[in-house]
Each structure stands twice: as structure tokens, then as C-alpha cells.
Design a protein that fits this description.
binds pyridoxal-5'-phosphate; four-stranded antiparallel β-sheet
Length: 409
């Protein structure tokens, strides 16, 4: 008899964005003439930049010719892209990586979900709360998260990030083996300073813990003092794996490409105390389960590092960040408490009268015809907040803000 992996059954059936879609559809059915604007989903809207498009056309033409056709590539990615990453994303910040520490992936979601395969099932995990759901759900699927009660998993240590602690998670007072950090943060749009990040690295080094650091939004950082990579902190190579993505940086949500850094100095212990380099384990894992990111996607990613590519993707990020500033200014002027949005495309808005997230979501939908994302969908500490994104077009963002203004005034 084939027995199912029952850990999957513990996952809540309701997927946040499916629940939102259901409520929006119900509204549309009863209000067929209403024009609904979404500031909800975390997907980009602006097209790929010309430098990327040209590179993809060139790569496609290569694939069409006998002499330049490419089949399977290296599982860990082509050197042309890995070298461009070293030179552009790390060297200018004084970070010297070896090319073998870079693994090209098909987007950061896969690797942030898969990385937990490298550690034993009984490690404890710690997450900032609210949080990108992939980190917990991927641990639930193999049984590491324990059982759920009131939206909390028994083997997960939650580190609340709320207005009360200025979205600065407190270092746990107990041992945590694996810590997930995401900065700039989805969903709160807040960032971490070098001093705060140093505390986490030191905690990990002291406790022989691992940090899985999601830097998917690093390109949105405007303030030069904010770290773009955890490897800007001394000692991080001994304790941290970092994830990057071209999805939000360059509009690759439909193209699929990103990369993961697994430093060679990074080790974890066997039960008998032998230190095992995780770089080798991840290489082995990828060679077995992953056959590489498409050549065309990797050429597209490489093009983001050309002078034109850099300038063009910067222009799109600036466009989204103008939306973010406009949302923050307008809602703050209306008396709302708004966080994030300065170094991230997300705004985290406190419900004005302490309403629950879902209630405020419905009010904004019914009274302003604007879709947000209920904060509680990202974890218990998200209750009492909604997330707005800066990814809509400028016109839609402006119109959504007009409606929210009219509604709240
Ligand atoms: C969007 C996002 C990613 C990137 O996902 P891809 O698979 O690269 O598209 C990773 N982490 C977070 C927190 C995100 O919001």
C-alpha cells in the first residue's frame, strides 16, 4: 500500500491568495460595474527591459543553429552569468566569492523551499513573523514544523515584527538551529541595519546555527547604509546561505532566474560532531534533482549587468519606488500608520481602529474598490495590518489612492 506523506495534510487548505480571489470575485458578482484595482498581489507589471529582450532574442537565434545550439547546461549555471554576478553584485561591496559558491536557480522560491533538505528533520526553525509563507510551509511538508494550533506551528519559533518593536525582531532567548531572515522584508517592506544584522550573525556563530537569508528585494534599497547582502557582515560566510532573484529586480517573474550563495566555509555538524561543508551537499543535491535554468533565461539575467541593462532595470525600480512613496505620503497624510515603502516595494498599513486584517481588507474592497492583502495571512503578528504593493501602474496607483482618500475622508 502506498502511504501518503501526511505532513502535507497539516497544511492549511486555504491559500491566502485563493481566499482573496474568492472574496474579490464575490464582490465583482454583486457589483458588476465596479472597476477593482489591485494593490494586493506581489507580482511585477512593467515589461522586460530592452537589453534583456535583445539578449533573449540573440540566445534564441543561437538555439536555432546547429553550431551554437545548447542542450543541458551545467546544473549550477553557466560561468558567464556566475562571473557577472561576482563582478557586479558582490565585488563592489567588498565581498569576494568563488564562482563555485554561486548556484544559478529558476527563481528564489524553489531554493528557499528546497534548502531545508540539507538539514536534519529535527532541527528547530525560527522565523520573523509576519513572513513569506514558503519558509514555514516547506518545513511543514517534511514534518519539521510540528503541528498547528491557532495559526502557530509547535516547532517553529516566531519572532514578532510589529510597530511596537519597530519591526526589529528580538534575538531568541532559546536555541534555534535554523533562522530565516528576509530583508528588505516581504510583507512589511522594512529593512535591517548592519548593526542589527551583525547581532544575528553573531548569534548564529555562537550557537552554531544557520541563517537562510532571502535578499530577493535588495535592488530596492535606496539608503546606502542598509546591507544588500548578509556577507557584508564579517563571519556570515560561516553561517549563512543567501538567496537572490531577478524576479523583482528585473521583472523575471515569468522568465525564472535567480541564484543561491552557499559559501565553502559553511559547515553543519553530524551527530558525531564531524563538520560537513554544505556547498558540497547542495552541489550534490542540485546535480541530482535539478537540470539547470534555461540558457535563454541565463543570458537574459546576464544582460541585466550590461551598462544599458543596469540603467533600464534601475528606471523600472525607480518607477515602482515612486508609487511606493506616493502611497506612503498619501496614506500618512490621511492619518494612517504606514511602514515600509522606503527601501522596498511593499507598504505595511496598520488598520486605523484596530480592526482585524480581513475586516479592513473587506472595507477597502467594498468602499474604495481597492484590493489589499490581509496581514494576518503572513502570520499571527500580521493581524491588524494590510499589505499594499507598489507594483501596479502609476495610473492605477494614483486612482487607487484617490479612492482611498475619498473613502477615508
Ligand atoms: C518574490 C519573492 C521571491 C522570489 O521568488 P522567485 O521564485 O524568484 O520569483 C523570493 N522571496 C520572497 C520573499 C519574495 O517575495
Amino acid at each position: 500500500m502506498a502511504l501518503v506523506n501526511e505532513h502535507f495534510l497539516k497544511l492549511p487548505n486555504n491559500y491566502l491568495f485563493a481566499d482573496i480571489a474568492k472574496k474579490v470575485n464575490a464582490f465583482r458578482t454583486t457589483h458588476p460595474k465596479a472597476d477593482v484595482i489591485s494593490l494586493g498581489i506581489g507580482d511585477v507589471t512593467q515589461p522586460l527591459c530592452p537589453a534583456v529582450i535583445e539578449a533573449m532574442h540573440r540566445a534564441t537565434d543561437e538555439m536555432a543553429q546547429q553550431g551554437s545550439f545548447r542542450g543541458y547546461g551545467p546544473e549550477q549555471g553557466y560561468d558567464f552569468l556566475r562571473e557577472a554576478i561576482l563582478k557586479n553584485d558582490f565585488l563592489p561591496r567588498g565581498i569576494h566569492l568563488d564562482i563555485s559558491e554561486i548556484f544559478i536557480n529558476d527563481g528564489a522560491k524553489s531554493d528557499t523551499g528546497n534548502i531545508q533538505e540539507l538539514v536534519r528533520w529535527d532541527n528547530s526553525i525560527g522565523v520573523t513573523d509576519p513572513i513569506y509563507p514558503v519558509y514555514i510551509d516547506s518545513n511543514v511538508m517534511i514534518g519539521r514544523a510540528g503541528t498547528v494550533e491557532d495559526g502557530r506551528w509547535s516547532n517553529v519559533i516566531y519572532m514578532p515584527c510589529t510597530a511596537e518593536n519597530h519591526f526589529t525582531p528580538q534575538i531568541p532567548d532559546r536555541r534555534v538551529d535554523i533562522i530565516y531572515l528576509c530583508y528588505p522584508n516581504n510583507p512589511t517592506g522594512t529593512v535591517i541595519s548592519k548593526d542589527e544584522l551583525r547581532k544575528w550573525v553573531n548569534y548564529a556563530l555562537r550557537n552554531d546555527a544557520l541563517i537562510f537569508y532571502d535578499a530577493a528585494y535588495q535592488a530596492y534599497i535606496q539608503d546606502d547604509a542598509i546591507p544588500h547582502s548578509i556577507y557584508e557582515i564579517r563571519g556570515a560566510r560561516k553561517c549563512a546561505i543567501e538567496f537572490h532573484s531577478y524576479s523583482k529586480t528585473a521583472g523575471f517573474t515569468g522568465i525564472r532566474c535567480g541564484y543561491t550563495i552557499v559559501p565553502k566555509e559553511l559547515t553543519a555538524s553530524t551527530l558525531t560532531g564531524e563538520r560537513i561543508p554544505l556547498n558540497q551537499l547542495w552541489y550534490r543535491r542540485q546535480c541530482t534533482k535539478f537540470n539547470g535554468t534555461s540558457y535563454i533565461s541565463q543570458r537574459a539575467a546576464e544582460a541585466t549587468y550590461t551598462p544599458e541593462g543596469k540603467q533600464q532595470i534601475r528606471a523600472t525600480i525607480d518607477y515602482y519606488m515612486r508609487n511606493a512613496h506616493h502611497i506612503k505620503q498619501t496614506l500618512t497624510a490621511l492619518g494612517l500608520e504606514v511602514y515600509g515603502g522606503d527601501n522596498a516595494p511593499y507598504l505595511w498599513v496598520r488598520t486605523p481602529r484596530g480592526e482585524g486584517s480581513w475586516r479592513f481588507f473587506e472595507q477597502m474592497l467594498y468602499d474604495a474598490h481597492v484590493v489589499s492583502t490581509p496581514g494576518v495571512g503572513f502570520g499571527p503578528s500580521g493581524e491588524g495590518y494590510v499589505r499594499l504593493t507598489a507594483f501596479a501602474s502609476q495610473e492605477q496607483t494614483d486612482e487607487a489612492l484617490h479612492r482611498i482618500e475619498r473613502w477615508l475622508k
